[in-house]
Amino acid sequence: MTSPSKLFAITLVAFLVILPTIPALGQEGPFEDLFDNPELPGWQHTPQAYVENGILRVEPGGFASPEGRWGSFEMIMQARYTGLGEVAFLFNLSEAGASILLYNGSRFQLQRESSGAVTNIGEPIPFEWPEGEWFDLILFVGPGTQEVFMGAEQVLSIPHEGELSSGAMSFEAIGDLVLEIERFSLVPHGIDAAAAQPPPETPVSQAPDEPSPSPAALSWIRLGGPPGGLGYDIRYNFNNHDTWYVTDANAGVHISTDDGLT
């Protein structure tokens, strides 16, 4: 029987073969998918990775990779697994190697692959992720640190030295494990938000007989989004339209004074 580590080496080599088909660009912009399109636009994937009922299923021996390259980023996915084996999250993946986050049903292990050699980074971190249970898995890769959260609980924090090279990302199912992902988002760090915004439109003057509604006449309308979760919240100051407040369970409270631009 082929061991999970050998299977992983095989799939890593297979992915590196198709790596040149991914555009070799610098840091990409945000990427998000709710898997409402079974064609999986914007993804490289094997036949064992497909969308079914709004869920991306990665079956044994398969992988899925969003097209693009990222250096430092925050990745959030709602995921669960069934079966025995390992799930591998590869990031900063390039011809020079890859960082690897492995979970085998009882522990996380961070690794680094370079020139065909795989090295463990830090000690294995025990964590009980019950089979079949949905979790928000967060991978934060930033200057000087690599962190993993399961829901609101931090399960791994490992410092690293040197600069982060931009690379691809991939999710792989090893052994008899099946990985399911219901939603996925990836937000890069270090992007100039103002430069990424389109130029503002010329304001349209309002007729004198059509005054703006007073703040008291305005109301909130729910437009959807995931229920519960990590506690992201946005508040808008009706008395000063340029001021927004944003809270985040892991990053604290932020304020924007330019109508959400930065």
Describe the structure in your own words.
This protein is mainly beta and 262 residues long. 7% of the residues lie in helices and 45% in strands. The protein has helices at residues 4-18, 193-196, and strands at residues 31-33, 43-45, 49-52, 55-58, 63-66, 73-82, 85-94, 97-103, 107-114, 117-126, 135-142, 145-150, 153-159, 168-175, 178-188, 233-236, 244-248, 252-256. Strands 1, 3, 4, 6, 11, 12, 13 and 15 form an eight-stranded antiparallel β-sheet that branches. The protein has a seven-stranded antiparallel β-sheet with strand order 2-5-14-7-8-9-10, covered by helices on one side. The longest helix has 15 residues, at 4-18. The radius of gyration is 21 Å and the shape is globular. It starts with a helix and ends in a 6-residue tail after the last strand. Mean pLDDT is 79; it is low at 1-11, 13-25 and 191-198.
The poorly predicted ranges are 1-11, 13-25, 191-198
User: What's the main sheet like?
Assistant: 8 strands, antiparallel
Mean pLDDT: 79
Beta-strand segment tally: 18
- Class computed from helices, strands and strand pairing: mainly beta
**Which radius of gyration do the C-alpha atoms yield?**
21 Å
Q: Tell me the number of helical segments per DSSP (H or I, 4 or more residues long).
A: 2
Q: Tell me roughly what share of residues is in helical segments.
A: under 10%
Termini Cα gap: 53 Å
Topology pattern, helix = H, strand = E: HEEEEEEEEEEEEEEEHEEE
Q: Which term fits the overall shape?
A: globular
